[in-house]
Amino acid sequence: MDGLNPVIELEHIHFGYEAGARVLDDLTFSLHEGEKAGLIGYNGSGKTTLLHVIMGLLSPSKGTIRVLGRRIETRKDFREVRRTIGLVFQHADDQLFSPTVLEDVAFGPLNLGKTPKEARRVAMETLERLHLRGFENRITHKLSGGEKKLVSLATVLVMQPKALLLDEPTTGLDEEARVRIASLLAHLDISSIIVSHEYDFLAETAQKIYSIKGGRIEFDGDAGALHAHLHRHPAESHPHRYI
Amino acid sequence: MIQEPFVCGDSQIHRLDPRFRIVVVAAYAFVVALSDRFSVLFLGLAFSFVLIGISRLPLFEVAKRVLLVNGFVLFLWFVVPVTFPGTPLFHLGPLTATGEGLLVSARITIKSNAILLTFIAMIATSRVATLGAALSRMRVPEKIVLLLLMSYRYIFVMETEYHRLARSATVRGFRPSTSIHTYRTYAYLIGMLFVRAQARAERVYMAMLCRGFSGKFHSLQEFSFSRKDGFWAGCTTIALLGLGVLEWMD
Fold it and tell me: Which one of B200, B211, B220 has the shortest CB-CB distance to A103?
């Protein structure tokens, strides 16, 4: 597309859950270095499925997946992929399972073989980067929705992924938390796929907008240019948010 | 919401190595549970009172918990004296209470209170997270530790989920009564809770896989056995040995 190296390449991916229509039907898509792609789609359009296929949590019936140019086939390959790509789950309660914030953020680095001291250091650095200093000893299940989301992001960023996948990052957040997440994502210097059904949120955080329909991905256009015409407002009275 | 009210203190006991505390409580529980002499049991109870004193926990909160357990113990007092074989002491209608039965009930009461108090002083003063880390450092099987930590983490989520379901039943006019409809509704609620727990467990596992989980659980916490811990270890060992000697010597 723009001559940069692709980070994730999907070619002719087919996927369907047992007994049911195909969720992904001959889907082709690639994410390039430094690109932030917003993916919009209705409920049940396969957005989450797509992210899980990339991470190897679900295996497609047909098609090839390449990460950083390398073809991903075996379970071992996918284990490698999970060091390269970070997935932030839709519900923070699924992602945060350790009792304290610090332990949760350090979970990934410890799995990557870092010593407890090293893991603690990188975890603290990441928390600081997300302005979450002072959160390290908080109990994860007692955090607010917005705080949980930020900590989930930290648990993934701490592994220094080459690409970030975000599944509906605004689910259940209030306006203030939404704005905070949006500005954070807009300033993160990392290739990402942001899945949402909120057009405005994608317009603030992504450069290119794609939509997923009938199991395929279509390119809708650049976030800036697209703004005026390609979508309808769900409720006419809602104005846009500009940054 | 479930709380850990005893954790936030700063007594001598709070600062002890959690591994040491677990070992002491386990040893203490064995000694007291296996003892029969009242002298030993009363000394054991005194030991637990001393620990509660040192831990400086709010006594009212402690009493509330002790009372809860003694509710169960009360049932024993109704059942054991009239079912335990021995010399009859008095008759209550068709039932005969035995002296031995009363003594057994008294022993169980002292033992359960003593062990409970020690447990509150030594274990409830430590966060579940810390306990998990300590157990794992003590080579307790990984799966058991994970089970403890995960149950602790998700019991809150289950609680919220249950309330959400119960609320949705309430707003549609559900009022529990003694009827098939009520039992069926509760069965559905619990069933739904299981289904959701299963689905959540799958998602949590996926999230763990995405962060490089491979079956081994690493911990950040490091423990150190200080001189103070050594001092405590000495004192408690002498106390427990003393109890043992009193029990098993003639």
Answer: B220
